[in-house]
Specification:
The protein has 697 residues and is mainly β. The chain has three helices and 45 strands. It folds into four domains: 6-171, Galactose-binding domain-like (Jelly Rolls); 200-365 and 376-487, Tachylectin-2, Chain A; 491-580, Immunoglobulin-like, CATH 2.60.40; 583-697, 60s Ribosomal Protein L30, Chain: A (2-Layer Sandwich). The strands form ten sheets. The chain has a five-stranded antiparallel β-sheet, with no helix packed on it. A five-stranded antiparallel β-sheet has the order 3-4-9-6-7, with no helix packed on it. Strands 12, 13, 14, 15 and 16 form a five-stranded antiparallel β-sheet that branches.
């Protein structure tokens, strides 16, 4: 691909580029991680550090040296920064924001999911430009490769003064997308957008003449939890301030819901305002408002309850470092579908005023601790989502879509149509403090009255919210609305199945981990049911995933899903198998990848191999035989040689990571031991595999 001619946007024209998706299908990504850098004035998140090049453009004032932009530590002729994006797309443009002293950029390379570099821009004659700053936008014809990273090279020696880069972005559209004037990021002007339909009351099976509020839809869209206030059939009758209820979707075509039922005790009690904040992907774990002490709820944080055949377990406190809420009467929460973030709307001393939205993260499992679904997860000190989201008013009711990036929340501090409106924003990087400017969902969703508690299923087609307009008996009710494309979350794949013992096929309670096979980053965690081993995970598009179950005394057989090119919501069935940790047991390494008819390892194999390295380090007496297999296509002798070469390459990798070669034997089987039919490619691919057998424990 030939480098393309850049488009220069002069200062008078720059309002803000590529800040969010303009419509469904248009994807804009800002860099989220620094992979490498030639030199730097500072490290971490300090002024001028490489991390300042992450996220959307935010350096102010433009054209002057800013703390919020990366500055090379040297004036070399080959200064560079290499960044990675949160997912991969087929790019059509790359944008580099040069905050001050522009003109030093000499080359821009895009990096695909295989690690290969593609040059899209070169400048053999760098030098000062007659402008204070520049948005360097390069457009090009889309190729087949998917971009997940970028490298920008500068000749700092040719342009005197600081050469600052504020942001690096890619997009799969070839037009300038303007959403926000980043010279005024605090702007709260209401943007009116026509939704695709009108609000539809869910009717008497869900709603009542009493207050029905805070809907929580399960990721598969088939169960809705909500709260009823002072309802005669609450556990404490009409004196009971609030119980949790639920309803099942009986007809997806007509959006018909079953008659609501009380969730039972626990967690509902006769005197407490019980509330459910979110539910896990498989519907087995609920995040509850409040801490339960001797059966009574106290508004001091959050609890979790697990579902079993006999009902829901006694709620267990969620331990959060330095948890503070100065207004116990107002608290909201939401557990990300990935299990990697806990959002909360609370009032803290470092907040902007009333309720603000904060986030906590799970602390790492101590080294050497066995995987245990019963383990109590510890959470970090909450950090604010920042002033883009939070205001001096109340910012509350956070809901993070299954894509782990799209945030819907209510606010009376961002301006709008009434008492509180619902807004939409996109997370721009991994810090959780950089967000696109909140967009008001418009007058169809929002009204002069109270509108809040917006929730969306993983499919992203319908949203549910609470409003006090046209409610039954004049009360607050739950409504449904079809999402406008501009406000839809990104595409995901919902994976469901069971965790089973590979030998007995009995269900196992386990922890499921899923990761990006290109970067090795763990994306999320989930649990399987202790009853039937069922699990559900939700995988955002644009990534090649590996996922596995973990349980004590078992070894995992990993599964994978290539969602890099997914363009619509899909559901997949995939059982996960665990192999007993015993001599003679055979474990398939399903996420080892080679080019066709070649033996060298592809980078997406490394996360799987590194886990095998950790197993061998944790159990230093274990010895294994690595076996290689092919299908039956072609010359049997060549197939045998290929299988031998492949397992020897695996052994070489393990030895390079410090594993004693004496613990590893190899054997190539060619196509002599198929585990599936060789008649068609759909099943033949299962025969091309690497596995290991435990020969000594």
């Amino acid at each position: 691909m030939k480098p393309s001619t850049p488009l220069f946007f002069m200062p008078a024209l720059v309002a803000g580029l590529l800040l969010t998706s303009a419509a469904h299908g248009q994807t804009v990504l800002w860099a989220t991680k620094v992979e490498d850098v030639s030199s730097q004035k500072a490290q971490g998140k300090a002024p001028f550090s490489p991390d300042k090049a992450l996220g959307e453009p935010n350096s102010l004032p433009l054209g002057q040296t800013s703390n919020e932009a990366w500055t090379p530590g040297k004036d070399g002729s080959n200064e560079f920064i290499t960044v990675r994006f949160a997912k991969s797309i087929i790019a059509q443009q790359v944008t580099v924001i040069e905050n001050v002293n522009p003109g030093a950029v000499t080359k821009i390379e895009l990096i695909d999911i295989k690690g290969e570099h593609h040059v899209v821009y070169t400048n053999p004659n760098p030098g000062p430009l007659p402008v204070g700053f520049r948005t360097l936008q390069v457009k090009f014809k889309p190729e087949k490769y998917r971009t997940i990273g970028a490298k920008v090279t500068l000749n700092a020696a040719k342009v005197p003064g600081d050469n600052q880069l504020d942001a690096i972005g890619i997009a799969n559209v070839d037009v300038q997308i303007v959403r926000q004037d980043f010279k005024n990021p605090a702007s709260t002007d209401v943007e009116t957008v026509q939704m695709d339909s009108t609000l539809k009351n869910l009717g008497p099976t869900v709603n009542s003449k009493y207050v029905d509020t805070h809907p929580v839809i399960s990721p598969d869209g088939r169960t809705m939890f909500f709260a009823r206030q002072f309802y005669p059939e609450n556990r404490g009758g009409t004196r009971d301030p609030q119980d949790i209820w639920y309803s099942k979707l009986t007809s997806g075509k007509n959006q018909t819901w079953s008659t609501a039922k009380n969730l039972g005790t626990p967690p509902n009690g006769p005197e407490d305002p019980n509330g459910l904040a979110s539910v896990s992907a498989n519907g087995q774990v609920a995040l509850l408002i409040g801490v339960y002490v001797d059966g009574f709820m106290e508004p001091k944080g959050f609890s979790t309850s697990r579902r079993s055949p006999g009902g829901w377990s006694v709620p267990q406190k969620v331990p959060i470092d330095n948890f503070i809420n100065q207004d116990p009467a107002h608290i909201d929460g939401f557990m990300a579908t990935s299990g990697k973030a806990l959002l909360m709307a609370v009032q803290r001393p470092e907040g902007q005023g009333e309720q603000d939205i904060f986030v906590s993260f799970p602390k790492p499992i101590p080294v050497g601790e066995q995987p245990d679904p019963k383990r109590v997860v510890q959470w970090t000190k909450p950090i604010s989502l920042g002033k883009t989201i939070n205001t001096p008013g109340a910012d509350f009711a956070p809901f993070l879509a299954a894509d782990d990036k799209t945030l819907y929340f209510a606010s009376d501090g961002h301006g709008g149509y009434g008492k509180s409106d619902i807004f939409y924003s996109k997370r721009l990087d991994s810090t959780w403090t950089k967000w696109s400017a909140p967009r008001n969902l418009g007058p169809v969703v929002n009204s002069p009255d109270f509108d809040a508690y917006y929730t969306v299923s993983a499919a992203g087609d319908n949203a549910y919210l609470v409003s006090d307009r046209n409610g039954m008996g004049g009360s607050k009710d739950i409504f449904r609305i079809a999402l406008a494309p501009a406000f839809k979350p990104e595409v995901v794949t919902l994976v469901q199945g069971k965790v089973l013992d590979a030998v007995t096929k009995k269900p196992i309670r386990a922890i499921i981990h899923y990761e990006n096979l290109i970067t090795g980053e763990e994306i999320g965690v989930a649990e399987s049911s202790p009853v039937d081993g069922s699990y559900t995970i939700v995988l955002p598009a644009g990534v090649q995933y590996g996922y596995r179950a973990e349980a004590a005394d078992y070894l995992a057989e990993n599964a994978s899903l290539d969602a890099t090119a997914a363009d619509k919501y899909t559901e997949k069935q995939q059982d996960l198998f665990l192999v007993p940790f015993k001599v003679g047991q055979k474990v398939k390494l399903n996420n080892i990848f080679f080019p066709q008819s070649r033996y060298y390892l592809q980078p997406s194999s490394f996360p799987e191999l590194l886990r095998l390295v950790r197993i061998l380090r944790d159990y230093p007496t274990v010895e294994i035989q690595i076996g290689g297999h092919t299908d039956n296509q072609g010359d049997p002798a060549l197939n045998l040689k290929l299988s031998e070469d492949r397992v020897n390459e695996v052994k070489k990798y393990l030895v390079s990571k410090g594993i004693d070669a004496k613990r590893l034997t190899t054997k190539g089987f060619g196509g002599t031991e198929p585990i599936a039919s060789n008649e068609q490619e759909e099943t033949r691919r299962f025969n091309r595999r690497v596995e290991f057998t435990i020969t000594k424990k």
